Amino acid sequence: MSTSITAGSLAAEPAFLSKERIIAKPGFNRWLVPPAALAIHLCIGMAYGFSVFWLPLSKALGITAPVTCGADIGFFEQVFSSQCDWPISMLGWIYTLFFIFLGCSAAIWGGWLEHAGPRKAGVVSALCWCGGLLISALGIHTHQIWLMWLGSGVIGGIGLGLGYISPVSTLIKWFPDKRGMATGMAIMGFGGGAMVGAPLATALMGHFASPTSVGVWQSFVAMAAIYFVFMIGGALAYRVPPTGWKPEGWTAPAKKTSNAMITNRHVHVNVAWKTPQFRLVWLVLCLNVSAGIGILGMASPLLQEVFAGKLLGNDLSFSQLDATQLAQIAAIAAGFTGLLSLFNIGGRFFWASFSDYIGRKATYFVFFALGFALYASVPSLGHLGSVALFVAAFCVVLSMYGGGFATVPAYLADLFGTQMVGAIHGRLLTAWAAAGVLGPVLVNYLREYQLSIGVPRAAAYDITLYILAGLLVLGFICNLLVRPVADKYFMTDAELAAEQALGHDKGADGSTVLEWKAAPGSKPLAIAAWLVVGIPLAWGVWITLQKTAVLFH
């Protein structure tokens, strides 16, 4: 009987990209999965660093100076014109499209991902992200900005969404004992993508630049090839545990009042978004991200305008600085931006790991309470001229911004169970898209309004910072209202079994082994996998640290 089953199973071997094909066998080392996720996240995280292309692309035709469009050429004519250079405002739409389509694709295809598995989703993500870069390269070569919007913004944005959520459910299932740390490791890679990609892009543009080209389209092609290798490698390295797997010797914590927020049952994605808990966590993420994302985008002008000459040891206002002094404080502000990036990345791992000890709800209480105190005190620190405390406050704020992203998948798993957490997380990312509009609009437009009514540049951000502090109070209240999910929302045993059948969840080769330690021989492979992603990330961190050194001179 066993022989016929084996023969039948061999005859019907699962497809190469299918979820059944990547169910791990006893002895598999779970520490091979986070590097696979990092390989994808470090590539798609370059979305944060696309601004490195704006200045060269704004003079793609003129090479040394932009070829400006005539006054009679409107916006839509510029979209299809190949006779004049693109203003940075038009290029910036790519950044907006990135995060709109990231949120939408994650929400729309999150359920498909749970059934198809992370390998197939990772491959589709690689095709979309890298294919989008190639379409953008064609758009630059032919000087058609709509091709850039379509390639990187729309198709690349879809790749962002699928790549971002592809490892979430898998990592949470591999690390039931360290949910926060596991997702923090992967999502840290998304924050670090620009740290690796931006200096790489700068080096490539320098290599390909010539008297007739700024070298951007060639850089896009090269980066598409590099990213494709890393992303496909990451996708093929994914493995999922058999249903019910746990690390050897680990026992799920008993249900106590202290961990009442953690469920052992599961809510379907189509039901989860209708619950009050989903709406509250959506607001929690949106408000936390709104407060951080607006500041992240304005970090450089914020430091320069608030402190101006104080950064150079004098009391001159921003308008009194000469060209040389402006260049000096711009370099200092660039170091400040780099420092914030480091804390953004570090916060993703630190806070998500910390949440494993104090709980997800308590972690968000820290974000909102500490964030409120810091935002409310920053204007006073600015007026006192305390650069060190001002910088330190924003470093902590940005660490919590990153921590909010990394902690929320585990928060969702605690509330809704692990069966469809990837799909639920995908729908929750619409909060990111909303915050991507709300935060920058608040910061940018309030600053412009303050300047228009004569408020000095050094005080132009005060009202904005107080409003952002108010958003964090609202977030605190929303988090306070989160309660365990009511029994009526959970799947019945029959519904769960049907969902697991759709998701092709089963034991490896029909095995009943659901608890194991990593095979001793897997350790060298795990070390090699971590080196593959760790070396580029360490290089990016080193480059960033060199830029931040100017802050301490």
UniProtKB/TrEMBL annotation:
InterPro entries: MFS (IPR011701), MFS_dom (IPR020846), MFS_trans_sf (IPR036259), Proton-linked_MCT (IPR050327). PANTHER family: MAJOR FACILITATOR SUPERFAMILY (MFS) PROFILE DOMAIN-CONTAINING PROTEIN-RELATED, MONOCARBOXYLATE TRANSPORTER. Coiled coil: none annotated. It comes from Pseudomonas asplenii. This is Nitrate/nitrite transporter. SUPFAM superfamilies: MFS general substrate transporter. Pfam families: MFS_1 (PF07690). One of its GO terms (molecular function) is transmembrane transporter activity. It comes from the Bacteria. The chain crosses the membrane at residues 31-55, 90-109, 121-140, 146-165, 186-209, 215-238, 280-303, 323-343, 364-381, 387-412, 424-443, 463-482, 525-545. Keywords: Membrane, Transmembrane, Transmembrane helix. Residues 37-487 form the Major facilitator superfamily (MFS) profile domain.
